[in-house]
Amino acid sequence: MKLQRWFLKITKSLETVLCCRVSPSQKAEVVKLIKNDDSEVITLAIGDGANDVSMILEADVGIGLFGNEGLRAVDNSDYAIAEFRHLRTLLFKQGRWLYHRICMLVIYSIYKSFLYTILQVLFARVNGFSL
């Protein structure tokens, strides 16, 4: 327990945590430890093989790489990329497009609700606000 708090204190001072030469369950444990400590933190896990599946499933966002170790990580991930160089495009370009689409959806929902309400008020006015 004391080692976990010590490890967590170190990881809080970092932007990225890389785990090398650890078992798959330890990778998932690191992600779970960071997620449970702060609910506002969004975790991202990147893996390329079957040994990374538990870590990818535990993270908020999982990215699988098409690699020599098979497609197990890709099958269990939220997003799949062919190479690490595509990660920047995925995070920034696709993220911006997703943000734009969500904003348009919110604007459309407000517009639709406004028009629906106006139509109901006009209908009620024509009928003298009676049932």
Could you walk me through the main structural features you see in this protein, from its secondary elements to its overall organization?
The protein is mainly alpha-helical. The chain folds into 2 domains: 82 residues, HAD superfamily/HAD-like (Rossmann fold); 45 residues. The chain has a 3-stranded parallel beta sheet. The radius of gyration is 23 Å and the shape is elongated.
Give the radius of gyration: 23 Å
Order of helices and strands: HHEHEHEH
* Biggest beta sheet attributes: 3 strands, parallel
Shape: elongated
* Average pLDDT figure: 91
Distance between the termini: 67 Å
Strand content: 5-15%
Q: What's this, in brief?
A:
This protein is mostly helical and 131 residues long. The protein is built from five helices and three strands. The relative contact order is 0.08.
SSE order and pairing:
Elements: H1 2-12, H2 24-37, E1 44-47, H3 53-58, E2 61-65, H4 72-75, E3 79-81, H5 87-126
Parallel strand pairs: 1-2, 2-3
Supply the key terms:
3-stranded parallel beta sheet, 57% helix, 131 residues, 9% strand, mainly alpha, 2 domains, Rossmann fold, 3 strands
